[in-house]
Amino acid sequence: MVPTYLPGERLTALRRWRRVRPGDVVVVRDPRNVDRWLLKRCVGRVGTQLDLRGDNAVASTDSRDFGLVPSRDVTYIVLSPPPPSRISPR
Fold this sequence. Notes:
Oligomer: single chain
CATH topology: Umud Fragment, subunit A
Low-confidence stretches: none
Strand order of the largest sheet: 1-6-2-3-4-5
CATH architecture: Ribbon
Radius of gyration: 13 Å
Order of helices and strands: EEEEHEE
Helix content: under 10%
CATH superfamily: Umud Fragment, subunit A
Structural class: mainly beta
Number of domains: 1
């Protein structure tokens, strides 16, 4: 699967103001390296823990690698959806 967002793409995200729901795209610090930010999709909840996955499973580092993430660790929720098409009309 192709990533939803491309490197360098601008996003609109706000500090977490509500509970993270499955389907939300979130920004969280990498649990293995706090100097790195990750952009992941929440695919499920187990109590207060989140299952975060990348949209490109083959190339993604996500909960399959580092386990569930506490919901309190989510810093931002992405608001803007990806553009319907990345191909500009000619």
